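agent> step 3/5: call structure_predict on target 'DUF2273 domain-containing protein' (Faecalibacterium intestinale).
agent> reason: downstream docking stage needs a structural representation; sequence fetched in step 2, passing through unchanged.
tool.input:
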Amino acid sequence: MKKSQIAGILFGVAMGVLFSVSMGTVGFALGAGFVSLGMVMFEGLDDPQDKK
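tool.output (status=ok):
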């Protein structure tokens, strides 16, 4: 797995936990949506040398 995928999953889980505190189960489902967003956001963590 790439660093961006790991960071994205962790980001999504963290957002899910935050939302679930305020909204319950619905919030956790919202947080799952942030996993894909997190993967895109953290693409910069991957080695930029790969993009030649």
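agent> step 4/5: record observation. The mean pLDDT is 76.
agent> proceeding.
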